[in-house]
Design a protein that fits this description.
Blueprint (H helix, E strand, L loop, with lengths): L1 H16 L21 E2 L9 H8 L3 E4 L7 E12 L30 E6 L3 E7 L7 E12 L1 H8 L8 H4 L2 H7 L4 H4 L11 E5 L7 E4 L13 E4 L15
Antiparallel strand pairs: 1-7, 2-3, 2-7, 3-6, 3-9, 4-5, 5-6, 8-9
The protein binds a DNA duplex (13 and 13 nucleotides) through strand 4, strand 5 and helix 5.
Length: 245
DNA sequence: CTGTGGATTTGCT
DNA sequence: GCAAATCCACAGG
């Protein structure tokens, strides 16, 4: 605990002194590690097609409240839409595209729930279910800008005190690792329940310009423009943050 | 019951 | 730039 506090203090000093590389300058942590005041998103927010929800989620906050610890939180800067089997044309990249299975059943349930799955035996990916109950569709959370609980994120991700902002939660696997999100504990969780450990908040922040690209790392439907990100944000995944478009 | 391959990350070359 | 790491859902026999 003592040590964590020191790590966080050191990180904040670096930020204040401007010692971090230029590519980190978009980080929004300099003054506080406490969560900005915000409210839970309403269920209706998610009862729409995933491409619409993905856009709207940019700028919103994902927070993990582990008992006895300070909240870990980040602002969503990148997300992808995966469409349900009711859509035309179909989306063969979506886990739900062949209909309900034991793994993907949460996608066919009520909106605003977490769909967490493991991939490549090493990592987890986190999605938010969309569409009215009975229809599948979801948004994959691909990158966060660190907001609070930086020390815990650093420990979860095995990062040193000089780590750049984008190393914490840029990429779906990193995002889950940073917030300690796992399939067994978080799959199916209601993200809009006040008693839930994992929540989606709106603090009123307005996102800037949004860029749209094809989704990352898929084989099928690789051309559909269903990836959304905040333009120029340093924490967007990929070799460099996405420029204009 | 078994074979297969994936919405990824990391480290080494 | 490429390959290894390494789990499990699911389809097919």
């Amino acid at each position: 605990m003592e040590q964590n506090a020191e790590v966080e203090a050191g990180r904040l000093e670096n930020l204040a002194a401007g010692q971090l590389p230029a590519r980190c300058r978009f980080i929004i942590v300099p003054t506080a590690t406490t969560l900005p005041p915000g409210h839970l998103l309403p269920r209706t927010f998610f009862e729409f097609p995933p491409e619409r929800v993905a856009r709207l989620l940019l700028g919103k906050i994902l927070v993990q409240r582990i008992k006895g610890r300070k909240p870990i939180a980040g602002r969503i800067v990148e997300a992808e839409a995966y469409l349900g089997p009711h859509r035309q044309p179909p989306d063969p990249a979506a886990h739900s595209h062949r209909g309900p299975t034991p793994r993907n059943q949460v996608l066919f349930g009520a909106a605003g729930h977490a769909y967490v799955y493991s991939i490549y035996g090493r990592y987890f990916c986190m999605n938010v279910s969309c569409e009215p109950e009975g229809r599948a569709g979801c948004v994959l959370l691909r990158a966060l800008e660190p907001l609070a609980g930086i020390d815990q994120m650093a420990r979860n991700r095995n990062l040193g005190p000089t780590a750049a902002a984008r190393e914490f939660a840029s990429g779906p696997g990193r995002l889950c690792q940073a917030l300690a999100i796992e399939r067994t504990t978080h799959n199916g969780l209601d993200l809009l329940d006040p008693s839930s450990t994992l929540q989606l908040l709106d603090d009123g922040a307005r996102p800037g310009r949004i860029v749209v690209t094809p989704r990352i790392g898929i084989r099928h439907a690789a051309d559909l423009p269903l990836r959304f990100a905040l333009a120029g944000n340093a924490c967007v995944s990929g070799p460099k943050s996405m420029g204009r478009a």
